[in-house]
Amino acid sequence: MKQSQVVGIIAMSFLFLAIYLVFSYAPIETTMLEVQKIFYFHVSSALTVFLAFGVTCLFSLLYLIKRKDKFDTVAAASAELGIVFCTIVLLTGPIWAKPAWNTWWNWEPRLTSTLILWLMYIGYFILRSALTGEKRKVYSAVLGILAFLDVPIVYFSVEIWQGNLHPDTDTKWNLAPEMVTTWMLTWFALTVVYVFVLMVRYEMERLKTRLEIIQYRQMGE
Amino acid sequence: MNKAAPLIVGVFFLIFFGLFLGRQVPVAITQDEVLAAVNDAIAEMDAQVDETEVGQAVSKSVEKLEERQKRRLKFLVSAYFVIWLVFCLYVLRIAREQSRLRQRLDQLESHADLSGESS
What we know:
The structure holds two protein chains of two kinds. Chain A is mainly α. Chain A has one domain (37-220). Chain A contains seven helices and no strands. Chain A has helices spanning 3-25, 38-66, 69-101, 109-130, 133-148, 150-161, 177-220. In chain A, helix 2 (38-66) packs across helix 5, helix 3 runs antiparallel to helix 4 (109-130) and helix 4 packs antiparallel against helix 5. Chain A starts with a helix and ends with a helix. Chain B is mainly alpha-helical. Chain B has one domain (4-118). In chain B, helix 2 (31-45) packs across helix 3. In chain B, 11% of the residues are buried. At the A-B interface, helix 1, helix 2, helix 3 and helix 7 of A face helix 1 and helix 3 of B.
């Protein structure tokens, strides 16, 4: 059994456990009632976004220092996953916002900075598709590092701009113990899912490189 | 990546989501049940109130509570549907791309073997 398959099975198991905890173990919150259950996947996805873009930043930096293709591959794969999780955050946010704030969207600091973060990484892929060769890897590595600067802004936006819709960064520790356990496990499950898909994406890129080498050899013959 | 993976997770999710919805205390109570409860309460209180008026007010409250619960559950279902849709579409895209690459690689490798044998 391949390493990625083992991680895949672990990811699935934790995802199952997270779903079970969200719907069968975590109590119903008294203010928002059933809608609060969106929190577990919404916030955990947001934290996975930070991890994914952090990995992109780290591997972009490594690429600029060492100039090894594998670093660029990991950076791009992680950015792609970051966009997927960020899309989940941006779509589930308004679904929560409507019953909580009576509006689908509000240009408050955290929502706006998260949208900017998503747009920056969309730009990262537009840049990658517009360039080729070494230029593509160097430029996207620089953007991968620069775009990460928005992550701490997203995280501390409520404190910086005194936004009053999203709770500040300490509020989550005031949850009931069962809710914290459920949230932590959901976060862990999504992190393992992220690691698993990243491994699959990396294997795919290696497969693509192998394919290109064979094609190149056959053209030579 | 197995194409069935998101389907398995989806089915598992639906089972637990269904169990959760099934376990929710239904706000929906029939008009007769409400009136009977109101009559009992008034009898216990031994107070002079209009039973019909109180019954109507309580029925209306229950109706409102039921509407609100339905609305909340609609948001919850929509959020988890969106999460699963995004996740499944992404996994399916990767799985399709991966099988396309493997097919192409097998084709090229078998082609390379054949040309190697013929030469």
